[in-house]
Each structure stands twice: as C-alpha cells, then as structure tokens.
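Handout, section B. The chain below has 375 residues.
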Amino acid sequence: MSFSSLQDSTSHDLTPYGWDEGWEAAFAPYEVWDLMPGRVLRVDRGQCDLVTPIGILRADTEFVVPRDPLKVVCTGDWATVDRDGDPRYVRHLLPRRTAFARSTSSKRSEGQILAANVDHAIITVSLAVELDLGRIERFLALAWESGAQPLVVLSKADLVPDPVGLSYLVEDVQSVAPGVQVLPVSSTTGEGVDVLRSLVADGTSVLLGVSGAGKSTLANTLLGEDVMDVQAARDVDGKGRHTTTTRNLLVLPAGGVLIDTPGLRGVGLWDAESGVGQVFSEIESLAEECRFHDCAHEAEPGCAVTAAVEEGSLAVRRLESYRKLLRENQRIVAKTDARLRSEILKDWKRKGAEGRAAMEAKRGGTGGRARHSGW
C-alpha cells in the first residue's frame, strides 16, 4: 500500500506538521519497502516519538546511529519508520533542509544538533536583565549558519514600562542584528504576541535562549495553553531552572510548528564562518575596501575596518566581538580539519619568523649606529 493510500485511509494528516510536496518526493523511494513517513516530535535515550499517518508512535533509533553526532536523529527530522512491528524502528532520515548545530562543551569539541528542518530561529532575550550583545551575536551566527531566518524576541517587555527606554533597547539589539527583525514581546500584556504569531504561522520555528529567557512562557502563549512547565527566574541574574528538559515539537493552533528547547548554558560555534559574516555584514563590507585582501584589521596600512573604528562609524566592541568569534570558529574547525590545522600552524610560524626578523633588524640597525658613533 502506497503512502498516498495509507494517508487516505486514516484521519491523521501530516500537513499541520510541515508535510509538503517536497517531503513527499523525498519519501517516495522508500514506499516500496513498506515504510511510512513520520516527523520526530522528541528524542529520549535511543528512542523517539514520531507523528505518522496512523498517529503518534514510539520507535527505536538504533538503526540510524552514525559516527557523526550531527547526523543523529533529532527533533524536527523527517524519517522513515516501520509500519508494523514491536518495537518499531526508525530506518532512515530524509535529507535535512536546515540544521541548527553548536559545538559541545566537551574537550573533544564535537558538534551537537539541536533542531532540524527549521524555518525560523527565534532567539529569545529577556529584558529582565542587562542585554548581552555578544551573546546575541553568537546566537545569530549559529542561526544564520543553520539556514533558518533569525528573529530576536525581547521577552518580558512589560518590565520596561518606559516606551523611550524600550525603543533604545530595541535599537541596541538592531545595531548587532543586521537583516533581522527585533520584536519586543510581553506574554503578560500581549504586546507583540499577534505579530509573533503571524510570523511563525508558516513553517517550523525553534525557540532558543538561555535559562530564564522566557521561552516556555512564550511557547505557552503561542500555544494558547499551559503545555510547558514554567518556573520563576531569579531576580539577581534572571536565570531560571531548565524547565524544558527535552526538545519538543508542537503544532500551533494559528498555524506553524514550534520546537521548544532547554536553556543553553554554552553556545559554542560550529563551523559557522558564513554565519559570523552575516552577523557582521558591515565589517565584511568594509573589509572589501582594505588595501590588502588578507588584511587582519589590526595594524595594516590602508585598513578600511580600523579606519572606520577611528572615525567612530564602527564600534570597537563590535570589531572585538567579530575577531573573537572568527578565532573561536577557526579553532573549532581546525580540530576536525588536519589541512586547516597545518595551514594555521604555518601561518603562526611565518608571523613568528617575521616578528623575529623585524626585531633583529631593529637591534642590528641600532647597534650599527652605536658602533659608528664610537669611532
């Protein structure tokens, strides 16, 4: 029986979960193997819940456990699953359209997949605490790299009753988020909720942010019911407990799909050079005007980037954050790329040799003048 006839014979429609003609075409080669499609709702200890044409099923993932941690079954994946059997197994993952990944905090610097097939990455930032622009830039870099469209939501906007003060905070975030909408939202007063609901009504969205940012409250607001547990954040630093412990995929009543994630303590980059470039697009544009194509934007003559800093059109903090994220990303990539490691080592040796040569020339020139003056 084909998937089309299976879908016709049941009342469970996958369309609200994001099923479309593209996914149907991707699944078509597997129909002959008596499999059916399903979208992963959550993953837990080698098993996952999937929504399928015959309802929500529990399936083992042991047949799709690759060596690459970025290719494990993840919330948001579309997969093929046994139509019958006890236990059922996930057999294949359909090719992902997008994937949100970060580096782990382990010394092995492995990648970790957080959500798959996401259209909108909602970076949730609490206004209950001081803005951390560097952290926002980091989230944005990962979001752009994933292939999703970032959106910054400033939650708990009701805690900033002064409209002028709120507009300044929005402008601060906009200054580090080129090409990204910044939306103040309050689940208490309803400010911005309708706008957000319309933005996420098409496609799959993932909620990202640190503990206490208000993700679960925001999810409940969009869902129209208290599905996610919520705990109060500490007044001192705005941090909360990990009320969300797994990544859950939920259908929104106004349309769209939402993935809620646990609060992230660490947000390490993972091969996100192009994402960093998009976050700092104004620096990338300035770099095209530098005299040297490999300008490091430090002390080189004719550097358009440092000239912009001196003129005051580019903030020093912004340039320092750009350098920091690029260095971090290069270190991460180098740990998994032997060729790049070798190139970096050669570059360090070259710069070291040039520095030593310059010091020797300086000392030699000074010594020569001293000897000459003593004749």
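Note. Residues 338-373 form the longest helix (36 residues). Compare this with the example in section A.
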